[in-house]
Amino acid sequence: MKGMQMKKYVVEQMDAIDSVPCPCGESRRAFVSPDNPVATLHMVDISEDARVHYHKKLTEIYLILEGEGHMELDGDIVPVKPMASILIKPGCRHRAVGKMKIINIPVPAFDPNDEWFDD
Fold it and tell me: I want to staple 68 with a disulfide (CB 3.0 to 4.6 A). Which of 20, 81, 100, 114 is the partner?
């Protein structure tokens, strides 16, 4: 038998992943592993005290699932509601404001060392 064949897919059960604190609130992060540099998927419960932050390398795609509020994007206030999607490029200072649940897709894969704050 030749070497073992690695599967070309990964399945994650989002509600079985432990949440971790993040600048936006609490996040459940899927597909985080050293062998996946491409993208991750985060389900985030936005807290009322979400912090403005930015990334030097990451692009993020937000999809609002539940709740309403607004996004602060480089000082602009943009109202959002369920099914709104936002593409956030590197360097854009941002935060979500309001009680919301979102999906966040960081590209490339999330790197905790690429979270930056002005304060």
Answer: 81
- Which range of residues forms the domain containing residue 90? 26-113
- Whether this model's pTM surpasses 0.85: yes
Q: For the chain, how many structural domains are there in total?
A: 1
Distance CA 70, CA 57 (A): 24
The answer, yes or no, to whether the previous bond of 108 is cis (omega within 30 of 0) is: yes
- Reported as a single tens digit per residue, the pLDDT across 80-95 is 999 999 999 999 999 9
**12 belongs to a structural domain:** no
